[in-house]
């Protein structure tokens, strides 16, 4: 009986249904597309900043705010998503949740930010980002951005597999 009572009080809260909105922070450095990953708070997986729709905000406004809070970056957010993926079912999430991702061209990065004590962040070329991301479908959204930028001539398509680059802040000086 005590075991059952303990389990009732020790449960994680169930996530609310409904879509979430995320930012795909990126920069173009020396013809290479680089993306900014952050760790999730719960499991420490590499993801892009995301969250539930904020009251009175659009999806893209929510995504921009999440990027600021979770990764300490600001920039030019697009108003049309580049793609979406689904968060998988977990004990806290009884159903998959769709996440719409909006590209965010980073223009400013802070060294201290709201969730800096709860998350790590890491700039990665696309090849490395694909290796680090474990959520099914999330890397595909980054690939779609890379393909779009290559088609527009902003990045060299041959660099989408990429080599390691200097840290974003150092490369932007």
Could you walk me through the main structural features you see in this protein, from its secondary elements to its overall organization?
This protein is an alpha+beta fold. The chain has one domain (20-171): Nucleoside Triphosphate Pyrophosphohydrolase (Alpha-Beta Complex). The chain contains 5 helices and 8 strands. The chain has helices spanning 2-9, 59-71, 126-132, 138-151, 168-171, and strands at 20-29, 32-39, 46-47, 50-52, 73-77, 83-87, 97-109, 121-125. Strands 1, 2, 3, 4, 5, 6, 7 and 8 form an 8-stranded mixed beta sheet that branches. The longest helix has 14 residues, at 138-151. It is globular, with a radius of gyration of 17 Å.
Give me a quick take on this structure.
The chain is an alpha+beta fold and 173 residues long. Helix content is 27%, strand content 29%.
Number of helices: 5
Cα shape: globular
CATH superfamily: Nucleoside Triphosphate Pyrophosphohydrolase
Total domain units: 1
Distance between the termini: 62 Å
Residue share in helices?
25-40%
What is the oligomeric state here? single chain
Rg from alpha-carbon coordinates: 17 Å
Pick out the low-confidence regions.
162-173
CATH topology: Nucleoside Triphosphate Pyrophosphohydrolase
Structural class: alpha+beta
Query: Beta fraction of the residues?
Result: 25-35%
């Amino acid at each position: 009986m005590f075991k059952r009572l303990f389990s009732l009080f020790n449960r994680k809260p169930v996530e609310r249904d409904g879509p979430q909105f995320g930012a795909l922070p990126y920069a173009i450095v020396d013809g290479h597309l680089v993306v900014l990953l952050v760790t999730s708070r719960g499991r420490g997986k590499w993801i892009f900043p995301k969250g539930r729709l904020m009251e009175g905000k659009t999806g893209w406004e929510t995504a921009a705010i999440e990027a600021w809070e979770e990764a300490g970056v600001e920039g030019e957010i697009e108003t049309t998503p580049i793609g979406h993926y689904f968060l998988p079912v977990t004990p806290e999430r009884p159903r998959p949740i769709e996440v719409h991702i909006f590209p965010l061209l980073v223009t400013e990065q802070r060294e201290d930010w709201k969730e800096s004590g709860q998350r790590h962040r890491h700039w990665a070329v696309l090849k490395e980002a694909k290796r680090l991301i474990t959520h099914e479908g999330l890397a595909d959204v980054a690939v779609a951005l890379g393909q779009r930028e290559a088609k527009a001539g902003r990045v060299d398509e041959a660099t989408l597999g990429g080599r390691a680059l200097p840290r974003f802040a150092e490369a932007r000086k």
